[in-house]
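ugh ok fine here u go
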Amino acid sequence: MLEIKQQTLVCTLKRDEHLLAQLRQFDGPVILKGLVADWPAVICGQGLEEYLKDLAADVPVQAMRAEPQAKGRYFYNDDFSGFNFVREQTHLSGLLDGLAEHGPGLYMGSTTLAYCLPDFARHNPMPLEEVTPLVSAWIGNQTRVAAHFDVPQNIACVVGGRRRFILFPPQQVENLYVGPLDFTPAGQPVSMVDFAEPDVDRFPRFTEALKHAQVADLAPGDALYIPSMWWHQVEAFDSLNMLVNYWWRETPQRLGQPMDALQHAILAIRDLPTEQKQAFKNLFDHYVFNADSSSHGHIPQSAKGILGEIDDTVARRTRAELLRKLNR
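structure:
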């Protein structure tokens, strides 16, 4: 067990005030104690399995089954040629039946809630008035998902079972020993450190990351607000665990995925001569990281293109131009 001194802030939100407005006052993770304790799915307690079976749609879902020696940890195999789990198609009712029979390491990861449990949200609502979140369900037994980050903001709600999140601020990326960007267990790059048995000889900077770590222990009915880009490992402890999470971005979808830009920058810029990389760093600072009206105020409005306001037309035109250039 890692020794983590910093506990995540616990906050009880005001029911009569908008949730997002209250969350914006925090610049780090926050435990929202009892946020969904009044959900029928939480109240049913030991009856959660039957509750879910009653609501489950008769549709295929994908389950991930880890090897027994993985002890519930989803990761790469020993030679990094693949992973230590297999993906299987099943139905939610079948998954629920198999959780108690299978040892640690069986779960349905990020599955659209409306697809697998279409009536769940109607009975168990989340008041996010200002955004339209992507709502996903996670159901499994004892599992560990390696530390990773998500670009959207996130509210993770524990419906059943106990969860532990270990969180790190974005600045700790260099101390978490991140694995491949384009070959990942579930879409996001993950820390290669096994938090249950950290190898500090192989990963010595991890000891520095631990100085900045926070731990959040959650019971059914609790939720955790995870700001964009915060690294988090997620561990589930019981034979039936369920998490529902709400992801949202505060920028329009048309602006694209930042990780795509990172990979393209690695492809196009990383291996340039030092002087050219510094020049492009200056350009990125000017046009991206420190961008303001001084970077385009001298250009006529009709000619600003992508330097001006990026509406749907500009976004579509830019994507088309990028595709043309990338495919030539």
